[in-house]
């Protein structure tokens, strides 16, 4: 009984000392951190402005392997949103882009758990030739009196996270630069022949109006839908699925409505719970192909060249395959590999 009293007295003393010390800790904290990455602003900013990209290399998310994500339109810039959680919902929260000034400034709001007060994270981008300087301004949420001790370690946590994230981003951009160099060596507007391997695609079947504005906007939306599902619901990393492919009947490309399948290659068939998604098998075989870059609506001349080549060689053709070598964005040019399966 005596020991119990002693333990209680010591506990009250420690609690009292802790409570008094919290009077000297601010309820929230603001701090600044600077970092630098050896890539130009046009390569760096899109990795921050798109939350699907951001969650891949940011160590806050990438270091927790069992996190799943849900992304909401628009998928980049002002108004973008993302939810994250682990299997047991022990770790969960939301991220929003509240301000976006291209190549200059971004503001994020990060809500952790059920806390209604967010972290405010402002990132300023300063181009320095082939390098980019980043200035991070972080403001922590207001904390209850007894939680203020967390503010004593928050800065160290964020600085460590930022430094690890910059290393992840540098490696990611290095891989993208290798890909860009390969794309730069592509010879456009020349018809070539190859024997293509078979592939298994997971994606969505779509019908939409075939107008210049509506068709490509619909493709961009379904690209986000498919990639989001594969990344967040299926937990696949970028190196675990292939280049997005659009399949359509070339004979219908001038109709008022067009139907297409949009999907990404996966190595094997897996269980899919969402009925909006289905698998499509591409058979191995001979294809004529041509590379195209420019406005998506102007690709038709390249498609016609493929069809003329097949007709000249007295070959029958299958569905047109449009591979997006770079992620499609509204009001931006595309890089496509247009392939036409041919057979006797």
Automatic annotation (TrEMBL):
Ranges annotated as spanning the membrane: none
Domain of life of the source: Bacteria
Name recorded for this polypeptide: Polyketide cyclase
Native source organism of the sequence: Epilithonimonas bovis DSM 19482
């Amino acid at each position: 009984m005596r020991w119990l009293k002693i333990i209680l007295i010591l506990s009250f003393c420690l609690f009292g000392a802790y409570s008094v010390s919290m009077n000297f800790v601010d309820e929230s904290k603001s701090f600044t951190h600077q970092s630098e990455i050896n890539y130009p602003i046009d390569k760096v900013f899109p990795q921050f402005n798109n939350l699907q990209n951001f969650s891949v290399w940011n160590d806050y998310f990438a270091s927790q392997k069992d996190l799943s994500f849900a992304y909401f339109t628009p998928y980049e810039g002002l108004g973008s949103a993302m939810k994250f959680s682990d299997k047991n919902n022990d770790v969960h929260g939301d991220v929003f882009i509240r301000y976006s000034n291209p190549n200059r400034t971004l503001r994020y709001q990060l809500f952790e758990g059920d806390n209604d007060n967010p972290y405010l994270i402002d990132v300023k981008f300063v181009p320095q030739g082939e390098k980019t300087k980043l200035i991070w301004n972080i403001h922590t949420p207001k904390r209850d009196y007894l939680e203020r001790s967390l503010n004593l370690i928050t800065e160290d946590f964020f600085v460590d996270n930022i430094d690890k994230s910059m290393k992840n981003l540098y490696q990611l951009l290095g891989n993208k630069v290798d890909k860009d160099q390969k794309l730069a060596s592509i010879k456009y507007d020349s018809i070539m022949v190859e024997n293509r391997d078979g592939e298994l695609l997971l994606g969505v079947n779509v019908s939409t109006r075939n107008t210049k504005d509506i068709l490509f906007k619909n493709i961009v939306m379904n690209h986000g839908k498919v990639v989001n599902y594969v990344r967040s619901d299926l937990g696949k990393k970028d190196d675990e699925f292939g280049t997005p492919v659009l399949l359509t009947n070339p004979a219908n490309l001038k109709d008022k409505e067009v139907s297409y399948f949009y999907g990404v290659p996966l190595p094997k068939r897996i269980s899919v719970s969402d009925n909006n998604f289905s698998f499509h098998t591409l058979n191995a075989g001979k294809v004529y192909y041509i590379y195209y870059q420019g406005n998506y609506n102007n690709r038709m001349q390249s498609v016609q060249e493929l069809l003329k080549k097949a007709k000249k060689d007295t070959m029958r053709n299958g569905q047109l395959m449009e591979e997006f070598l770079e992620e499609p964005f509204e009001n931006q040019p595309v890089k496509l590999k247009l392939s036409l399966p041919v057979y006797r």
